[in-house]
Write a structure and sequence with these properties.
Amino acid/polyamine transporter I; mainly alpha; 447 residues; binds tryptophan
Length: 447
């Protein structure tokens, strides 16, 4: 058998996984759901969700991947030939496919906005004009699809280049670049007059704002933000070398992902508050609110360009992780070359993605369970596929997988002395599954 590819260095593993985790979820979605859910209290609930659910599921995916040494479906089959646990892998591959088909639409928007920022197109426009600019663009039948094509082509190129020469190499370049950009943006935001109001919104919790919906949003977002329940971290786990420490890798990745989301909040809210804008504008926050204020702040021209560049880079390192799930499966399953599978999968994803893009305009009248196609794909994957995938994953490691295997994976064959194994088991057996089930029942409206 051909030797499985791997991430060559520890930093490469970290960059690839953080690249996957850090995306539109951190810089577009986290700030706006934080804004809509009242700020600091939401962030606190989110941190708890990451710690007791996100982190154990992430670690479980790494264990399954590194032990199963294959794509998500065959990793489960390798570990448990009997039974139907591999259904979790099937859900994962389908989820990765569907998520990429709508995520690439929004990733494409960030490129259009980067070009608009370079062309100084936000200057001299009032709120209504900028609002209309966004509406006109996303409902245009051609331009968003063109940008989506660009994003998918770049993604395909990187994935086709291989795990080490594609994913690891580009993530190792792009993730540090992204961190530098976000720090520059933070410094700009923090030196604006009125910045402190934005900071207290982010860091002074008002617990009267915490309710069921806040917890639900926080949990759903922790899955999305850590790229869980879609086979991504199982696939990446299968490329982790035996001498890497799974526990500390997972912890570092979760910390980096959360920190970057908070740094994105620090780049955005002081700006929003400095101009007396309400923070609860929803998904339009980065495409409408920010373009409104960029022209009004000193250095705003550069700030705007860097901001949309940041979004685009963050999106790209995530789209490659989604495509890799589909490609890893295709390569194993059809015994075809990585290039070929990458190209064919990208075309199929693009076809579904075109409908997601058109659903913001000409096909907007077609309703899927009361919403448009893009939103439907988002809800379908987030509420069902990713939740079910994560639940099966954690139940598998908590209850079904031979504990010797888990111990071996966590201690690197007994080489590491690890104190958290019992805690991990307790959380994986009881805490995470119960929390996931409660949240699922709540999200489909049963409780
Ligand atoms: N985590 C990424 C973000 O926050 C998105 C992402 C990448 C993802 N791979 C995934 C989400 C797999 C769910 C499943 O933007």
């Amino acid at each position: 058998m051909e030797k499985r590819e791997s991430f060559k260095s520890s930093f490469g593993l970290f960059a690839a996984a953080v690249g996957s985790a850090v995306g539109l979820g951190n810089i577009w979605r986290f700030p706006y759901i934080t804004g809509m859910n009242g700020g600091a209290a939401f962030i606190l609930v989110y941190l708890i969700c990451v710690a007791i659910i996100g982190l154990p599921v992430l670690l479980s995916e790494f264990i399954i991947g590194r032990e199963g040494k294959s794509n998500p479906i065959d990793s489960f089959k390798n570990l448990m030939p009997k039974g139907k646990w591999y259904i979790s892998g099937i859900l994962g591959v389908m989820a990765a496919f569907l998520i990429l088909s709508f995520y690439s639409v929004i990733a494409g928007w960030t490129l259009e906005y980067m070009i608009k920022a370079i062309g100084n197109q936000f200057a001299g426009k009032d709120v209504n004009q900028i609002d209309a600019m966004f509406g006109d663009f996303i409902s245009n039948p051609i331009r968003p699809i063109f940008w989506q094509f660009i994003i998918l082509s770049l993604t395909c190129y990187i994935v086709a280049s291989g795990v080490e020469k594609g994913i690891e190499k580009y993530s190792s370049l792009l993730v540090p670049a992204l961190i530098v950009i976000i720090i520059i943006l933070d410094i700009r935001a923090l030196t604006l007059p009125g910045a402190s109001e934005g900071l207290s919104f982010l860091f002074k919790p008002d617990f009267s704002k915490v309710n069921g919906k806040v917890i639900l949003d926080a949990l759903g977002h922790s899955f999305f933000s850590l790229s869980l329940g879609a086979g991504t971290m199982i696939t990446y786990g299968s490329y982790i070398k035996n001498n890497e420490r799974l526990g500390s890798s997972a912890l570092n990745i979760a910390i980096a992902d959360t920190l970057i989301a908070i740094l994105a909040g620090i780049a955005i809210f002081p700006v929003v508050f400095a101009f007396g804008i309400e923070p609860d504008n929803g998904p339009g926050l980065v495409f409408i609110t920010l373009p409104n204020v960029f022209p009004k702040i000193p250095g705003g021209y550069i700030f705007g360009i860097l901001f949309f560049l940041l979004l685009a880079l963050a999106a790209l390192t995530s789209t490659i992780s989604m495509l890799e799930v589909v490609v890893a499966f295709g390569v194993d399953r059809f015994k075809a070359s990585r290039e070929r599978v990458a190209i064919i999968s990208t075309i199929l994803i693009f076809i579904v993605g075109i409908f997601a893009s058109l659903s913001q305009g000409v096909l907007g009248h077609i309703s899927f369970l009361g919403t448009d196609f893009l939103d439907f794909l988002d809800k379908l994957t987030a509420n069902y596929f990713m939740t079910a995938g994560s639940l099966i994953t954690i139940l598998f490691v908590g209850w079904k997988l031979d504990r010797k295997i888990t111990d071996r994976q966590l201690t690197n064959e007994g080489m590491l002395d690890i104190g958290y194994v019992d805690t991990f088991y307790f959380v994986a057996k009881y805490i995470s599954p119960i929390a996931i089930i409660l949240v699922f029942l709540a999200s489909v409206g049963i409780i």
